[in-house]
Amino acid sequence: MNDPTIPGGEFGLIAWIRQRSAPGGRVALGIGDDCASLRFTPGAEVLVTTDMLMDGRHFRLGEASPAEVGFKALAVNLSDIAAMAGVPVAAVVAVALPAGSAVAIARGLFDGMIPLADRFGVSLVGGDTNAWDGPLVVSITLLGEATSRGPVRRSGARPGDAVCVTGPLGGSLLGRHLRPEPRVAEALALAGLAPIRAMIDLSDGLASDLGHILDESGGLGATLDAGSIPIHPDAHAAAALDGRPALDHALGDGEDFELCLVLAPDDADRLLAPDPTRPTLIRVGTIDAGPGLRLRGLDGSVSALAVKGFDHLAPGGA
Ligand code: ADP
Ligand code: MG
């Protein structure tokens, strides 16, 4: 589509993107034709994920720069590939740009996105460029490849398994949500050390996201240990601002983009032994046979834990 509302021209912009996107070994055909064409490892499962970020919902242009939005748009997709212990390969990027400042915003977006793509070995192989009389919307589809171990799903947890996370949680809205560090290398390293029974990336909050593992694993439950949840300094800062406990922020804020993974108890013991050559891993709880999420408080008492993750379609949420 030729969009005359983009000053400088849509095709000039695409040429600029094309020139800055490094070709990858798996790319038979990149930007410039009607489709991109990729070579995957014969027999490997191809992973596909997409995430859309909308001004006013996931960020506010002004508070967040276009470069930060571009970084985050790719990072959240990389986090989904990490959650399957997969290898990211190639991205396509669809943008709806606010007419008037379309090219400046697009350049910022790609300035934020391309170095992250390069760092993770992702080739930018195509997209779609539009301008309109509306706010910025960015949608990235990321393709990846499972290793020979296959993708790690949400569905393999068993009673007695250990629930672990890869880093501290909470308070991401104070700014960290704009610069998540996708745990791609960490997931691949951990998957090489032990079978990961189930995994999910923490986008909605530990309580909500662990709930998906429990549901997909056949209606299991879990008990989290309040004293073991790693609380990010940002969660304490958020608590000081709004008076809610830092633990609530750690359990419910979301957009941490750490991984939550479930391991057999003996594998967990082995991987939790201190070793600076391994990714950070913190045990936060145990899978239970009985459904429901529970929290063991610092005094040892166990209570039901309400799930407070974000739901776009909840009443008042959209
Ligand atoms: P078509 O009309 O056939 O869909 P386009 O004119 O939209 O083609 O795009 C031309 C080429 O530029 C295609 O290879 C497309 O994938 C690529 N492209 C368009 N917009 C972007 C973008 N924002 N980022 C990366 N590649 C893009
Ligand atoms: Mg097109």
Outline the structure in words.
This protein is 29% helix and 25% strand. The chain is built from 8 helices and 13 strands. The protein binds adenosine-5'-diphosphate and magnesium ion.
Observed structural traits:
single chain; 318 residues; alpha+beta; 7-stranded mixed β-sheet; 4-stranded mixed β-sheet; 13 strands; binds adenosine-5'-diphosphate
Helices and strands in order:
Layout (H helix, E strand, L loop, with lengths): L9 H11 L6 E3 L7 E2 L7 E9 L11 H17 L3 E13 L3 H18 L3 E10 L4 E10 L15 E4 L18 H10 L4 E4 L4 H11 L4 E5 L7 H10 L3 H7 L6 E5 L1 H8 L9 E7 L3 E5 L5 E3 L14
Parallel strand pairs: 4-5, 9-12
Antiparallel strand pairs: 1-2, 3-6, 4-6, 7-10, 7-11, 8-10, 9-11, 12-13
Number of helices: 8
Question: Which structural class do you get from the secondary structure elements?
Answer: alpha+beta
Mean pLDDT: 94
Strand arrangement across the biggest beta sheet: 8-10-7-11-9-12-13
Question: Could you tell me how far the N terminus lies from the C terminus, measured between alpha carbons in angstroms?
Answer: 31 Å
Bound molecules: adenosine-5'-diphosphate, magnesium ion
Roughly what percent helix?
A: 25-40%
Beta strand %: 25-35%
Question: How many β-strand runs?
Answer: 13
Order of helices and strands: HEEEHEHEEEHEHEHHEHEEE
User: Any low-confidence stretches, pLDDT <50, length ≥5?
Assistant: none
In angstroms, what is the radius of gyration? Answer: 21 Å
